[in-house]
Amino acid sequence: MIDLSRRVYVYFNLHKKVWSVRQGNKIVDHTQYIMLKDARFLVGKKGRELVLATKTKNVHAGVSGYIVERVPNVPDAIHNVTYNPYKYETFVDCLDYEPVTHADYAVLECGSSWRNVEAIYENIKVVA
């Protein structure tokens, strides 16, 4: 069971082709779609260095945040984000390739052969 008051860590599972959701040290869900609030885009330096040295993939990058059911619909504030350990040290914005370390919200989607991460950077008041 997921505790919505605690952060989760979400990463793309290359074997299952879905997002793995970890809370604490336990995988609590696999999903094709998840929305997070107070998102932090994290890359483990040692894990990335291992990928570069061995050319073997490992889990060292993901998004941390609080699971939410909705995110604000603000088209001008939505940016696609990507990460490639061979090209970047951090997650980057797909338009200008500037580093992305956090966002107010993040939307992570995937299918069998694709994945997409969107970040909403603006400070937006959400009325509950």
Please outline what is shown here.
The chain has one helix spanning 45-54, and strands at residues 8-13, 18-23, 26-31, 33-43, 61-67, 78-82, 91-93, 99-100, 102-110, 115-120. The chain is mainly beta and 128 residues long. A 10-stranded antiparallel beta sheet has the order 3-2-1-5-4-9-10-6-7-8.
Question: Can you describe what's shown?
Answer:
It is a single chain. With about 130 residues, the chain is mainly β. It has one domain (about 10-120). Helix content is about 10%, strand content about 50%. The chain is built from one helix and ten strands; from the N terminus they run E-E-E-E-H-E-E-E-E-E-E. The chain has one helix at about 45-55; strands spanning about 10-15, 20-25, 25-30, 35-45, 60-65, 80, 90-95, 100, 100-110, 115-120. It has a ten-stranded antiparallel β-sheet. Strand 7 (about 90-95) and strand 8 form a beta hairpin. It is globular, with a radius of gyration of 14 Å. The chain starts with 7 loop residues before the first strand and ends in an 8-residue tail after the last strand. Residues about 125-128 have low confidence and may be disordered.
Q: Count of DSSP helices?
A: 1
Oligomer: single chain
**Widest beta sheet: strand line-up:** 3-2-1-5-4-9-10-6-7-8
As for the number of domains, it is 1
Which sheet architecture does the biggest sheet show? 10 strands, antiparallel
Radius of gyration: 14 Å
Write the element-wise H/E pattern from the N-terminal end onward.
Answer: EEEEHEEEEEE
The portion of residues assigned to helices is: under 10%
> How would you describe the shape?
globular
Contiguous low-pLDDT stretches (5 residues minimum) are 124-128
The tally of beta strands, per DSSP, is 10
Cα(first) to Cα(last) distance is 24 Å
What percent of residues are in strands?
over 45%
Q: Give the structural class.
A: mainly beta
| pLDDT averaged residue by residue | 91
